[in-house]
Amino acid sequence: MATVDLRQFRQQVKLNKRKIKGFLTRLEKRYPKGVKLHQVEADIKAWERTDCLDCANCCKTMSPTYTKEDIRRISKHLNMSEKAFREKWLYKDRTGDWMNVKQPCQFLDLKTNMCDIYAVRPRDCAGFPHHKKAMGADYMHMYKQNIEFCPATYRLVEGVMEKAANGEL
Known about the structure:
Blueprint (H helix, E strand, L loop, with lengths): L5 H24 L5 H14 L3 H4 L1 H5 L6 H10 L4 H8 E3 L5 E3 L7 E2 L4 E2 L7 H5 L12 H7 L4 H15 L4
Antiparallel strand pairs: 1-2, 3-4
Helix pairs in contact: 1-9, 2-9, 5-6
C-alpha cells in the first residue's frame, strides 16, 4: 500500500479539480449504464492504494455532522452530560447542524492518526467517504466535495474517469 503524501495530494487536487468536477457534473447529467460496476471496481483499487491511518486528512480538515444520537452516545462514553459535551466540543452552524469547534478533530490522535472515540464515533465518520452511495444525482455533490479531502475518493473518481476515457462507459 502506498503512503499518502498529503502535500502531493493537495497539489494534485489543485491541478485537476476543475477537470474532475466537470467530469462528475457530466456524469450526473448523463448516468450511463455500467457506472456502478466501474465505481465498485475503482473503489477496490483505490483502497488498495490508500490507508486511512496513514492519511486521516478527513479528520484533519473536515467536521462530521453530529446527530442527536451521536451526541447522546459519545457524551455517555465520555461520562459527560450532553449539554457539557456540546458546550465543550461543538457549535451549531448556520443550518442548525452540530459541528466540531476545532480542526483537526479533537478526537484525532495526531501521532497515530487514530480516533480516540472510534467505537462510538459519529455516524458521519463511520460512513465516510460514503463510497457505497451511487455516483448519481442524489450523491454527486458528496463526491465533488470529497475529492478535495479524501485520496481514496479522488482515486475512485480517477478510476471511473479512466474507464470513460477508454470508452468503457
